[in-house]
Amino acid sequence: MSNTWIKMCGLKQRAEIEIAVELGVDAVGLVFYAPSVRSIGISDIEEILPSELKGTKVVALFVNPSREEVEAVLSSGRIDLLQFHGCEEP
Fold first, then answer.
1. Do residues 32 and 62 touch, judged by C-beta distance below 8 A?
2. Which residue, 14, 39, 68, 75, has fewest beta-carbon neighbours within 10 Å?
3. 7-84 CATH
């Protein structure tokens, strides 16, 4: 039997992420989909992510993004995993 892996997604504030890290979640999810009320912009990444994540992974969630958008988010150097939640082609 495998261990449960927990991701808290749609976090928009540093305080929320700090609490999630202290609670020991495996990952925090950042939404990069403008129509979502949970969406953040690329410029928000450094503002909301604490410098110390204590092993917590950062997941970037996209819905049908352009290649350029994904590359821009990855260029922050703070993203560990990508989650695509649309009709993306492989």
1. yes
2. 68
3. 3.20.20.70
